[in-house]
Amino acid sequence: MKYVKKKLSELKPYENNPRINDEAVDDVAESIKQCSYIAPIIIDEDGVILAGHTRYKALKKLGYKECEVVIASDLTEEQKKKYRLYDNKTAEMASWDQKKLSAELCDVDFQGYDFGQPEMALPDEAEEDGPKMMTCPCCGEVFEV
């Protein structure tokens, strides 16, 4: 594998990409605007994207003309297909430690960008048959879960 700079016009989205990612493009573009472009797109030796379709769309939306890529050569077609699926599916298997997430979010300035309302803390004690409530330790806002 090697890192190289490529024109976005040289990259080819995988034509059978099963991932529906248009809803995430704005979020990825915002991340790139606020934190810069960090994670490279991974392509095969023919320029076909193996991982990074959403980053590719976000970079195009932001007006980038080129980007750093990793070329993964010498993979079989089966390995390429497996990698595309593993790269996306394994992220779905992870979950969040809500208490640690809440602590991380407390003092991060997303410059007005709204990710929606995340679960911010562990449930507070409530009656067994009543609703479970959570309190954000940063702002004290209470949420029903």
Could you give a quick summary of the protein structure above?
With 145 residues, the protein is α+β, with helices and mostly antiparallel strands.
Number of helices: 4
Strand order of the largest sheet: 1-4-2-3
Mean pLDDT equals 83
Helical content, roughly?
A: 25-40%
Return the structural class: alpha+beta
Report on the structure:
With 145 residues, the chain is of the alpha+beta class. The chain is built from four helices and six strands; from the N terminus they run E-H-E-E-H-E-H-H-E-E. The protein is 31% helix and 17% strand. The protein has a four-stranded mixed β-sheet with strand order 1-4-2-3.
In terms of topology, how is this protein built?
Blueprint: E1 2-7, H1 25-35, E2 41-43, E3 49-51, H2 53-61, E4 66-71, H3 77-92, H4 98-106, E5 133-135, E6 142-144
Parallel strand pairs: 2-4
Antiparallel strand pairs: 1-4, 2-3, 5-6
Helix pairs in contact: 1-2
